[in-house]
Design goal:
Structural class: alpha+beta
Number of helices: 4
Helix content: 25-40%
Length: 193
């Protein structure tokens, strides 16, 4: 076996290795920040950030992921998330949690491995900080219209590994044989910090 994420046969083996490695990297960054006096970061929390409809429409029109990434960077700062690992989920599972996404007609669904998906980009954020502005009317403009949900609070290392395993499993539905799986780091978790 090749153990590559691009291989349709071997990517589950890649996933079993990648999830613990990503969790270890994330907790290593958190410990280093706490140890070297950059402030108390506390525990990791799992949030879901769904962009407002106008951002999703701009993304669909152009297909440019940078539109989503720029919105997310501004949204994380506005929400008070100081450090985060982020995974983009471009699709939602038909019959799963829909969040803010209305279910499109069946002709727009994508079938993969016996499951049906539809386009509804959203981000899963494993981050530290203090989420502010829970009510839409109290939010800065960049967050208005977005759906932000706290899925898990105070993740320990094992819960982080399990969350990453689940999130990496379907962070991108392979379309035309291409699978883009990536954890991106923002704020104080970014490598430039």
């Amino acid at each position: 076996s090749c153990d590559r994420k691009e291989c349709p046969k071997c990517w589950p083996r890649w996933l079993r290795k990648e999830a613990p490695a990503a969790a270890g990297k994330l907790w290593g960054k958190l410990r280093a920040l706490d140890e070297y006096g950059h402030g108390r970061y506390g525990q990791l929390h799992h949030f879901q950030f769904s962009p407002p409809p106008e951002i999703v429409a701009a993304f669909r029109e152009t297909g440019d992921r940078a539109i989503l990434d720029r919105w997310l960077a501004r949204a994380l700062r506005a929400a008070g998330i100081r450090a985060a690992a982020v995974l983009l989920h471009p699709f939602r599972l038909v019959g799963g949690s829909r969040g803010d996404s209305p279910l499109p007609p069946p002709e727009l669904w994508i079938q993969q491995n016996g499951r049906f998906w539809y386009e509804a980009p959203h981000f899963h954020v494993l981050g530290c900080g203090f989420f502010r502005c829970e009510k839409d009317e109290d939010r800065p403009a960049v967050l208005r219209g977005a759906v932000i949900t706290a899925l898990s609070r105070n993740l320990d290392e094992e819960a982080t590994r399990r969350a990453l395993f689940y999130l990496l499993d379907h962070s991108a539905v392979p379309v035309d044989g291409h699978r883009e799986l990536a954890v991106r780091y923002y704020g104080d978790f970014h490598s430039s910090r």
